[in-house]
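Z., the sequence and structure:
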Amino acid sequence: MNSISGQTLVITGGGRGIGFATVKRFDQAGFEIVNLARSPIPMDSARQITVDFAESGWEEAVGEQLTEALDGAGRICLVHNSAFQQPGDVAQIDMAGLRNSLEINVVAPAALNRLVLPSMSEGSSIIYVGSTLSQRATRGMAAYATSKHAVAGLMKSTAQDLAGTGIHTACVCPGFTDTEMLRSYGGEALEHLASLVTQNRLIAPEEIAETIFHAAQSPVLNGAMLQADLGFIEP
């Protein structure tokens, strides 16, 4: 694997699933790693910044650490991976869950952009991890779908507002990915989810990580919504 020296990955929630697969992919390419999460990643070379995006005032708490970690960095790829999923339909939506969904999935990326952008040079990128629910909806997931639609809007605004800076953005929208969270639904549920896509299988986290890496290196995708879902079978 060729090393891309002088580049840094800043990722939220890099400790497991898609996040950790992304960390490993960028590490293989020679990126420095800065992980912002409640739990550290099992990688001695990574810079760990402990943060809970649901807590108020986290920006002030991590700002100095983040600025120090990015001092002298070359190109930066910022990956907004952390997410909170609150089930529930519109008629019985949990207001605290909706607020947490918006705070973690939308407000935190917007705040983190503001912290990292001053350190970003031409050729840097901001990649949002959305969902298939960034462009559609399913029953019983009102808060999550609402927040992921908002992520799509934030990404498109990022593309417009950073025009001329040489910084590009995209939103990668994974389908049913074989992570710890999905496996908690159990075997029969996983088989059903796999049957809903044309390839009749779940997505490996490494496949999404590769898509994120590709988007980070491809300015032509600026403002793009990338469906990474193996192709849903239409009813």
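The domain at 7-177+205-222 is CATH 3.40.50.720 (Rossmann fold). The chain is about 40% helix and 15% strand.

Let me know what you think.
H.
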